[in-house]
Amino acid sequence: MDTTFYNKPETSPALKALYERLGKKNTAPLWEVLGEIVTPLPKARCAPALWKYDEVRALLMEAGELISAQEAERRVLVLENPTLRGGSQITPTLYAGVQLVMPGETAPTHRHSASALRFVLESGEGAYTAVDGERTTMHAGDFILTPSWTYHDHGNPSEAPAIWLDGLDIPMVNMFSASFAEHHPDETQPVTRPEGDALTRYGTALMPIDFTPGRRSPLLSYPYARSRDALDRLARNGPVHPAHGIKMQYVNPATGGYPMPTIAAFLQFLPAGFETAEYRSTDATVFCVAEGRGTSRVGDQTLAWGPRDIFVAPSWQPVSHTPQGEAVLFSFSDRPAQKALGLWRESVMAD
User: Fold this and answer.
1) pLDDT tens, the chain, 351 aa long
2) Residue 269 phi/psi, 5° resolution?
3) What is the pTM assigned to this prediction?
4) Distance of CA 28 to the CA centre of its chain
């Protein structure tokens, strides 16, 4: 497709003089920028990139020796896209980081406008996240929610580090100048509900009769063991999608919609010997390897990944995955926001 959709007029001395006068009045000629801001195809605005977990973990553990969780508020290494350095962005609308809570530490209770997810990488034995008065013990592969404006804290009473991937809609919130944040009166919020309460109430295909569904999931945690078992069963039952393998999305069980208004999350199983067809969509997507090894072709780059590595696929760039043996990929994106605005598109690219 022709990407020179709009042609700029030739700039005469008279036009240059007009531009100077326009600038003094805080105005500008649309015809000079129209091709940059109204494009016939999406401009990715970020690049394919890969973060090797072992390398990030070594740096994170070094940080753990130099600064405490209390001093840092949250001891996190931000994963910055190479084309968005300094902006704390992995994609134009999403933030990602790798967080560490050392044995015996707690990260203080706060809340903020941004919605957050956690994908657990290392859990120790007994590390937890608490959200609005309920704690959930973290296990590797668990998907955990911290919805907008909910008090949350983290603790690690175990003898091993707890590490997880954070995903937040901070850049989106800040684009709207809608960020608020505050601390809880207590460093650690009181526990007011037993562990597993949300999963019992909302995660068993039953709902309390007086429950009113909201825009975010009432669940706190989506245990990996249950999700992984579902993938295994579906892989045996088939069919296997040519572009996705066996791919499922995490949902709000009360509505069937996304778990949060701005962030979608997915889990997909890639069978041994399987290579996906090329796929592209307008939501730039962050992937984390839950299990296995393989390669992904993103645009014109080939990214080789292993357990707990993290990589990003920009908007509308073709993506294909080739596992070495079986593999499981977790991913998240801004798909709900795009769908709410009527902007989202996808395409499976035939051979």
Assistant:
1) 444 677 888 889 999 999 999 999 999 999 999 999 999 999 999 999 999 999 999 999 999 999 988 899 999 999 999 999 999 999 999 999 999 999 999 999 999 999 999 999 999 889 999 999 999 999 999 999 999 999 999 999 999 999 999 999 999 999 999 999 999 999 899 999 999 999 999 999 999 999 999 999 999 999 999 999 999 999 999 899 999 999 999 999 999 999 999 999 999 999 999 999 999 999 999 999 999 999 999 999 999 999 999 999 999 999 999 999 999 999 999 999 999 999 999 999 864
2) -105, 130
3) 0.96
4) 36
Identity of the residue numbered 248: M
Nearest to residue 217, comparing CAs of 259, 261, 262? 259
Amino acid at 37: I
Is the separation of the CB atoms in 132 and 151 below 8 Å? yes
CA dihedral 83, 84, 90, 93 (to 10 degrees): -120
Q: Which residue's entry shows tokens 């203080």? A: 108
Looking from the CA of 348 toward its CB, the CA atoms found within 13 Å total 8
Q: 164 forms bridges with which residues in the sheet?
A: 99, 120
- The single-letter code of the amino acid at 17 is A
CA dihedral 211, 217, 218, 219 (to 10 degrees): 140
What is the Cα–Cα distance from 191 to 131, expressed in whole angstroms?
9
Q: How far is residue 72's CA from residue 97's CA, in Å, rounded to a whole number?
A: 14
Nearest Cα to Cα of residue 36 among 25, 28, 24: 28
The token pair at 262 is 């701005």
Q: Which residues contact 160 (CB under 8 A, 6 or more apart)?
A: 103, 122, 124, 125
And the tokens for 96?
């990602």
Specify which residues 267 forms β-bridges with.
248, 330
**In whole angstroms, what is the distance from residue 90 CA to residue 101 CA?**
22
Cα distance from N-terminal residue to C-terminal residue, the chain: 19
The amino acid present at 317, given as its one-letter code, is: Q
| Amino acid symbol at 45 | R
